Amino acid sequence: MRTFSARLSRTLTTAACTFAVLGLGSQATAAPPESSLTLSLHHNDGAVAITQLLCDPAGGSHPASAQACAALDDAGGEPAALEAVRPGTACPMIHAPVRASAHGHWRGEPVHFTTTYNNACLADVESGGVFGF
C-alpha cells in the first residue's frame, strides 16, 4: 500500500509541476500584434518591394509604421477606404503603374486588398503613407 501511495504522490507532484511550468510559459509568451499586414508594391519593371506592418503596437519593417497604422485606423482597417493625408502633395505625372497589395489581418478580421496606382509617389500619397515604402 505504501508503494502505491508514494507512486501516486510522485505522479501528482509531477503533474502539478508540469501544469505550473505550462502556466508560466504561456504568461511569458508575448501576444502577437492585433493587426499584421504584409504590404507589397509590384513595379512595371518587375521590381517588387515588400514590407511588414504591425499595429497595436506599431512596428514591423515599414519605415513609417506609426503613420501607416494611424491611416489604417482612420479607414477602419479597410485599405480601399484610405485617404490622402497630405492632399495637394505634388507627384510627377509619370505613368509608371505599381500594383499595391495588403494581406493579413486587422483586429482579427482578414484583409485581402489589391489596387493599382499610376506611380509609386501616388501610391504613397493616396494611401495615407501605407504604401509609402
UniProtKB/TrEMBL annotation:
Compartmental location: Secreted
Protein name (Swiss-Prot/TrEMBL): Subtilisin inhibitor domain-containing protein
GO cellular component: extracellular region
Keywords: Disulfide bond, Protease inhibitor, Secreted, Serine protease inhibitor, Signal
Organism (species): Prauserella sediminis
UniProt family annotation: Belongs to the protease inhibitor I16 (SSI) family.
Domain of life assignment: Bacteria
Domain spans labelled Subtilisin inhibitor: 37-119
InterPro entries assigned: Prot_inh_SSI_I16_CS, Subtilisin_inhibitor, Subtilisin_inhibitor-like_sf
Signal peptide: 1-30
Segments passing through the bilayer: none
GO MF assignments: serine-type endopeptidase inhibitor activity
